[in-house]
Amino acid sequence: MIRSPLINIGIDPGGTSGCICIINDASDFSRYEFHEFKKITDRDIANIAKTYSSYSKLLGVRCCLEKVHAMPKQGVSSIFSFGQNFGKCQLFTEILKAETHIWTPKKWQKAVGLVSIKGEEKTQHKKRLRQIAERLYPNVKIRNNNQVDALLLAHVSKNII
Q1: What is the pLDDT of residues 119-138, one digit of tens each?
Q2: Residue at 1 is within a domain
Q3: Structural contact between residues 54 and 45, judged by C-beta atoms closer than 8 angstroms
């Protein structure tokens, strides 16, 4: 069996709700970091990437980046912001020199055990994702839904074999 890297990163590039989650298993206990795009600058993102790129060869770094696309009824500026964030996230993974996997929401959500319910409202869908995250990581304080997707993407990264 192939050993999982000790640093696993989940990236949800969302327009204003994007987040990076880092699961660091390099010490005796796991550390969880959340970096929400609305709270950090581009320079912060670059510095995080530089910090963890030094771990790349030693410990292994793997990323799972959500593949996003424009949705009907989105405004022009929000679509532009969405695209910019996705580009930043791709650059982030390049700076990291990390093994990177790009997964659609449907694919990674299936990987964490979320079963689709036809006609389900978005709020209920997000609630079920949060319940999965809380069950998988009961000791992690999840402050908002922005962090849920990123944490679950990091979980998928950690469990890719």
Answers
A1: 999 899 999 999 999 999 99
A2: no
A3: no
Output 106 or 76, whichever has higher pLDDT. 106
Range of the domain at 23: 7-158
User: Residues 39-74: pLDDT tens digits?
Assistant: 999 999 999 999 888 877 778 899 999 997 666 666
Q: Indicate the number of domains in the chain.
A: 1
Residues linked to residue 36 through DSSP beta bridges, in sequence order: 19
Check which CATH number belongs to the domain holding 103 and give it.
3.30.420.10
